[in-house]
Amino acid sequence: MIFTPEHIKELETALKDKSLASFHKRIQAVYFRSQDKTYSEIKQLLNLSHDTVWRLVTKYESDGLSALTKDGRGGRRNAYLSFEEEAEFLENELESAQAGEIVTATHLHQAYQKKINKSTSKVAFYDLLKRHGWRKITPRPEHPKKADAQTIKASKNKI
């Protein structure tokens, strides 16, 4: 890539911008390449591989500075519904529960599968519930301070 004075000025400005501090190493790699440093020199200076430097320069060449400053890691890319659509689905189900219907996870799971027209695992559906702050509420089987069986039997035999 042939770097124009405008490219170099843009990179220098980006290096001084504190809001881009997390992308500083990427910008530096491209800037050093614009200063005619070799890949091996940049590799030693920044502790980056040759391929990484080449990839960053290529990204900058095709998309400009925005290609270096966007963080493409993380996120939910393989979702049937967006987070907002999931929230809307759960809110509709919550309204039916408040109207007096009994809502179970199985019922919700079936309604979810019907909405997306696909079969999903219960684990994935429980992850959806957890993502939206829903939790399982069940009654305790017995009181936590309940006496053991021997104590109860002894108290019944008193006369």
Report on this model:
The mean pLDDT is 88. This protein is 60% helix and 0% strand. The protein is mostly helical and 159 residues long. The chain has 9 helices and no strands.
Q: Could you give the topology of this structure?
A:
Layout: H1 5-16, H2 24-34, H3 39-46, H4 50-63, H5 65-69, H6 83-98, H7 105-116, H8 122-131, H9 149-156
Helix pairs in contact: 1-2, 2-4
Characteristics:
159 residues, 9 helices
Averaging pLDDT over every residue, what do you get? 88
Beta content: under 5%
Secondary structure tally, helices? 9
Bin the helical content. Answer: 55-70%
**Tally of DSSP β-strands:** 0
- What is the overall shape? elongated
The low-pLDDT segments are none
Main β-sheet description: none
What is the structure about, briefly put?
60% of the residues lie in helices and 0% in strands. It is built from nine helices and no strands.
